[in-house]
Amino acid sequence: MILSKTNRISLHKVSNFFRLILPAESQNICRHVHFKYYPDTTSKIKGETKEMNMFQAINNALHLYMEKDETSIMFGEDVEFGGVFRCSMGLKDRFGSRIFNTPLCEQGIAGFGIGAAANDVTAIAEIQFADYIYPAFDQLVNEAAKYRYRSGDQFNCGKLTVRAPCGAVGHGGLYHSQSPEAFFAHAPGLRVVIPRGPIQAKGLLLSSIEVEDPTIFFEPKILYRTASEQVPVEYYKLPLEKAEIVREGTDITLIAWGTQVHVLLEVADMAKEKLGVSCEVIDLRSILPWDIETICKSVVKTGRAVVSHEAPLTQGFGAEIAATIQEECFLNLEAPVARVTGWDTPFPYIHEKHYLPDKYRCFFAVEDTIKY
Amino acid sequence: MNMLMRFNKKFLDKGSNVCQSIKNYASEASFETKPFRLHKLESGPSTHVSVTKEDALKYYKQLHTIRRMETAAGNLYKEKIVRGFCHLYSGQEACAVGMTAALRPQDSVITAYRAHGWTYLMGVTPLGVLAELTGRQSGNARGKGGSMHMYARNFYGGNGIVGAQVPLGAGIAFAQKYQNTGGVCLALYGDGAANQGQIFEVYNMSKLWDVPCIFICENNGYGMGTSAERASASTEYYTRGDYVPGIWVDGMDVLAVREATRFAIEHCTSGKGPLVMETFTYRYSGHSMSDPGTSYRTRDEIQEVRQTRDPLTSFKERILNANLVTADELKSIEADIRKEIDDAVKIAKSDKEIDLHELTTDVYALNIDKEIRNTTPFKPLPASNLGPAINV
What we know:
The complex is a heterodimer of chains A (about 375) and B (about 400). Chain A is of the alpha/beta class. In chain A, about 35% of the residues lie in helices and about 20% in strands. Chain A is built from 15 helices and 14 strands. In chain A, helix 3 (about 55-70) packs parallel to helix 9, helix 5 packs parallel to helix 6 (about 135-145) and helix 12 crosses helix 13. The longest helix of chain A is centred in the C-terminal third of the chain and has 16 residues, at about 260-275. The termini of chain A are far apart. In chain A, about 60% of the residues are buried. By secondary structure, chain B is of the alpha/beta class. Helices cover about 40% and strands about 10% of the residues of chain B. In chain B, strand 5 (about 185-190), helix 8 (about 195-210) and strand 6 form a beta-alpha-beta unit. Chain A: It catalyses: N(6)-[(R)-lipoyl]-L-lysyl-[protein] + 3-methyl-2-oxobutanoate + H(+) = N(6)-[(R)-S(8)-2-methylpropanoyldihydrolipoyl]-L-lysyl-[protein] + CO2.
């Protein structure tokens, strides 16, 4: 059981909806977990570790950062009691007025954060769900992303980080499940980062806060509790520039980010067992800017690629990856690049398990690509 | 000496004697402003305002420089040397000049796209403004921003999206409070932007947290091509913060604006939180250069404002009638400004554009690739940074 007694009390304040997401009394965190979690056991970060799930790792990162940088502030809807996903637990008690609740106004939160960051304050904003980020779209795309460029480097808001929980959670329905990374991937000047688990989340979040560009950090919310790892307790950063080869292989390259990396890891096991195929699995980690080199080197080696994400097919970030692979690795390709993604529908409630690119759909794509 | 001689000559011509003219030669003068209107404030600034000779000459110079610079900008646009967007401030000069007169070194300003005058007042030369308009390297942002994006220390721009700068202003002001600088931020927007939802979001946040932000609605009567009355259910913009106190000021009177701004700064810095200030003003040009500005209002209306409310003419008359300055002094200032602007125009026309490699500077603090993707296959462009930033 993850929640402490105090957490359970705080949770009573949260609306019924959020209790559905975070049932305080149940081990079964979600009605439908569509993947098997593969803990990161090969982390190269040295030193003492502690078992943490992803919300605890993120919470730990925030504690470490706010302790380190006294100019930093963190704000968002209900962050004072820990936030609906508990990522800001204990920060209010420790850092007082540097942590504060905002009204429910995402556009204002984003604009306010950009202004504070432009005036030399490290601003960490939480948007309660990535699905709520759209009112802030103009602020992030027009104000944050372009500040440095349009001023000829005189002004920037690189001290802004926006955290937002994204992705499927089993029962989130239309407005608590979306993965909007591709919308923001179209805005040069922004960074978009998505971790696949606790160790990654801590290191990538600290890098995202430190990097001198405005960064949107999407946290796959189903991982907050389902993902647990031995997380190094020290302050550490992970590179925003490099995709990570999570499993090496020779026959086909599987590319994903966030939760979907775990789906593909299971697919890699299935492909090994059922087809005798060796899959190379890559976690992209940073969606914008993205690491073309690691992806293309892998595809040059394997000659085949499958990209998978939860967001819909059309104009999903997989389209960008597929197009780039096609350009860069054309003569190495043995088969068309396959995309396995959410359907081109709104994110469904009762049909979530059909909508998601689960291991079976991904496996069939691997099989088709191998047999092409 | 020269000044005194000219001064004496004027009065001698009129048949006055020298002694009398010296007696009338004031170092300070007082005027009455139109009454301020107050919203949820017990008292406002005094309508009895005074100005020293030195300040009067300074304000006159600033007012006139902006007018002249905007005329030059309009002409450059008509000559097709300035392309794209260009929003002129002519008619509204007293707003920015009056506010600047009340600013202290620790205060900040952020405005929308009608930014030329503000950029000049915050320390950029007319050349820096005009060359930015023409997209040349002497431009304030080296020609990378254009008309709407200019910057200076404590001046956060020049922002192109209607109303989007206002939440930034609240954030900037919050950072000032947080860092105990004692400063305030002036977040400016127009009567058109006043109907943007995000402005109400930050009224609320700022009042909640007593953020030292002065929300300033420059009401020039028209949001693009729609009059305030046809766009706003309430045109009393100074009351639209509801629970945020407000003040209305005649935006054509530089001294009234200065007094109101001093009052607003005092209000914010005394811990009472934000204030909404409406400066009632007028724009002579269209919204931007594609708008002739005459399809939704009559030429007579514009003429009437020019004749009865013009911020330059009215200030000039006041300080002349009070014998605070002489006509010759003002003429001399005007001649200097004319020359400065003419020279700036020449350079803004002839100056070089920045090299193509700057197309790919300053996208990120540090780019992950050596080159920006997809520029040209023939001559790849490296990613680099000009820096250093002046805001952090």
